[in-house]
TrEMBL record, chain A:
It is found in: Cell outer membrane. PROSITE patterns: OMPA_1 (PS01068), OMPA_2 (PS51123), PROKAR_LIPOPROTEIN (PS51257). It comes from Phyllobacterium pellucidum. Belongs to the Pal lipoprotein family. Residues 50-166 form the OmpA-like domain. Part of the Tol-Pal system, which plays a role in outer membrane invagination during cell division and is important for maintaining outer membrane integrity. Residues 1-23 form the signal peptide. GO terms for cellular component: cell outer membrane. This is Peptidoglycan-associated lipoprotein. It is a lipid-anchor. The Tol-Pal system is composed of five core proteins: the inner membrane proteins TolA, TolQ and TolR, the periplasmic protein TolB and the outer membrane protein Pal. They form a network linking the inner and outer membranes and the peptidoglycan layer. It holds the Pfam family OmpA. Coiled coil: none annotated. GO terms for biological process: cell division.
């Protein structure tokens, strides 16, 4: 323990941690993932990530404990698939998420199941499955925070992220 | 202890080697002896019988030239009090002022304030800079010494000495091993719920001496202690590829556990510390349980279903594995042979069951139960019978056993708070306490007893 403590306490290492943390924040700000974040619906350049997020819709939602692609989600994913086929140069990562009303490890697996179901649906619509990576955040990255279904329903989601590994 | 034994004649030295992480922690334990009255009765707290009336105990300030003696006594008293088995008596009620801890106390003075047990001691600085801490445990009604020991240690290890003394008292008076000289690795949380920063942290079991093991850059989850080494396994989202890692606590050295094609989650060591069991999240959305042998690096698949199989935990003899699976619909607890053979469901109650953890004594399985809008911590026998809920709330999750199998730590998030914190509960369910941590905290994992 002692040696590790000494390493962690060294000012040099602390400075390195801080610079990494700042870099992490900066890159996140460049990746808005909802129309609300952007505030410029409709004005996005065709083929841009903003175009995808705002005009197509980057996310779908799930029922409690379910990874079934609902009817409304099928419509969104069909639009996503058309757009993704038109712009084949984007790498795609589907992030699966769960609400917080489950245990951590189960929710990680459930998020993966949702991401896999989403990827499979996009593949069924003609997007090459090999182009789509998946990742699960379980209940670690909610977008809405409250103790009721109004928030939980927004957090049970899969987000199609363009250009690499998730948020 | 079943027998008290006669006081030793003369200063019999006993050396106990300490297989610890720090040579500075190395201690010499000696048995102290004083002339005492003959034994009459046996002071013993039976903690196997459900509800226990806490034993009144007087813990006097250890003699020292400074604050240290009082501090050590304070840590001992706090450990014993938090166990729920002891009721330390207010110091203001003490009649005798201990001025010579080598002499027998005036037992009448302690009996009259109903102190069934009495702790006295002294701490002195040695010429070489080390501390010498001595203590004696007295049975006031029998009028005899139960334990006398001394320790030499570096001054910064004074809290550890106090925990070791508290363990010795606990063991003498209950007959069970203590759990105070232990640590807990957990996840320290800060920032908003949407962008929470999580760092691995390690602390003493009473919440003191927190140190951080990661810097918060990467999301880290579910750390677990090795049963045999100063090593933890945990999950990290490092590099956008969530996987299981090992971290050596002494050196800070880290390594990946296996190289799987997908995310790996829910790691836990085998009882011999030689394997890590975990779940692999697969392309088809299923989760299956694998082990990796840390020496040979070979992986073995234990389950093959299209369901979510996760949260695996070995029995202490290493022959069985308990886990959670939603193969029957909602998550329930199953057990199987350590080779994956003969899986059978053991939980059948309402709601869902997850995070099963086999007790270090082998007799119980702790779990998180989700039912009726509440999350509870409970225990069941290893065949699934005898379920008892120990704690319930809006969100109580993730039990971990104290090494003596009598106390569980878990995390609790009260409604509306988004603020998880660590709690302990004993097997009676009556003694439930919050552990103070510097920030928000979750995912605790208890170390084995330090040696």
């Amino acid at each position: 323990m002692r040696r590790f403590e000494m390493i962690a306490r060294s000012p040099l290492v602390v400075a390195l941690f801080m610079s990494l943390a700042i870099a992490g924040c900066a890159s996140k700000k460049n990746m808005p993932n909802s129309a609300g974040d952007l505030g410029l619906a409709g004005s996005a350049t065709p083929g841009s990530t903003q175009d995808f997020t705002v005009n197509v819709g980057d996310r779908i939602f799930f029922d409690v404990d379910s990874s079934v692609i609902r009817g409304d989600a099928q419509q969104t994913l069909s639009k996503q698939a058309q757009w993704l086929k038109r712009y084949p140069n984007y790498a795609i990562t589907v992030e699966g998420h769960a609400d917080e009303r489950g245990t951590r490890e189960y929710n990680l697996a459930l998020g993966q199941r949702r991401a896999a179901a989403t990827r499979n649906y996009l593949a069924s619509q003609g997007v090459p499955a090999g182009r789509i990576k998946t990742i699960s955040y379980g209940n670690e990255r909610p977008v809405a925070v409250c103790d009721s279904e109004s928030c939980w329903s927004q957090n049970r989601r899969a987000i199609t992220v363009l250009g690499g590994a998730g948020s | 202890m079943m027998t008290i034994g006669q006081p030793k004649e003369g200063p019999e030295l006993m050396l106990r080697t300490t297989r610890t992480i720090l040579s500075a922690f190395a201690m010499i334990i000696a048995l102290l002896a004083v002339a005492t009255l003959p034994a009459r009765a046996q002071l013993k707290l039976d903690i196997t019988k459900g509800v226990v009336e806490p034993m009144p105990i007087a813990i006097t300030d250890f003699l020292s030239g400074d604050q240290l003696g009082t501090n050590i006594s304070g840590v001992i008293a706090a450990d014993l009090e938090r166990s729920g088995l002891f009721a330390p008596i207010e110091k203001g009620a003490f009649i005798e002022k201990i001025s010579n801890p080598d002499a027998a106390p005036r037992f009448e003075d302690w009996k009259v304030i109903n102190a069934q047990a009495l702790v006295t001691g002294r701490v002195t600085k040695q010429g070489d800079g080390r501390l010498k801490a001595e203590f004696r445990l007295w049975d006031t009604f029998a009028g005899k010494q139960l334990i006398g020991q001394q320790f030499f240690t570096s001054p910064e290890s004074w809290r550890r000495v106090a925990h070791i003394i508290a363990d010795a008292i606990y063991k003498e008076l209950t007959g069970e091993d203590g759990y105070f000289d232990t640590r807990v690795v957990y996840v320290d949380e800060s920032g908003t719920k949407e962008k929470r920063v999580k760092r691995l942290a390690i602390m003493d079991q009473d919440g003191a001496n927190t140190r951080y093991l990661t810097n918060g850059k990467d999301l880290v989850l579910t750390p677990r202690f090795s049963p045999s080494r100063q090593e933890i396994t945990y999950m990290s989202f490092e590099g956008g590829k969530p996987q299981i890692y090992l971290l050596q606590l002494e050196t800070g050295q880290r390594e990946l556990v296996g190289n799987f094609p997908g995310m790996t989650i829910a790691p836990r060591f085998s009882p011999d510390g030689q394997k890590v069991v975990m779940s692999l999240l697969q392309e088809d959305g299923s989760a299956n349980i694998y082990t990796m042998d840390l020496r040979s690096r070979t992986t073995t698949r234990l389950t093959s279903t299209s369901a979510i199989d996760t949260g695996a935990s070995y029995s202490p003899d290493g022959t069985q594995v308990v886990f959670e699976s939603d193969r029957g619909g909602r998550p329930q607890i199953y057990k199987m042979g350590a080779d994956g053979s003969n899986p059978q469901r053991i939980s059948f109650g309402d709601g869902s069951y997850s995070t099963p953890v086999w007790s270090p004594r082998g007799d119980l399985i702790a779990f998180t139960k989700q039912a009726g809008g509440e999350f509870s911590i409970g225990v069941m026998k290893t065949d699934g019978s005898g379920e008892r809920i120990l704690s319930s709330g809006y969100h109580d999750e993730g039990p971990t056993w104290a090494p003596n199998g009598r106390v569980l730590m878990f995390f609790r998030q009260p409604p509306g708070s988004n603020s998880p914190h660590l709690m302990t509960v004993d097997l009676t369910g009556r003694n439930i306490r919050q552990i103070q941590t510097p920030n928000l905290s979750s995912d605790p994992a208890w170390s084995p007893l330090l040696e």
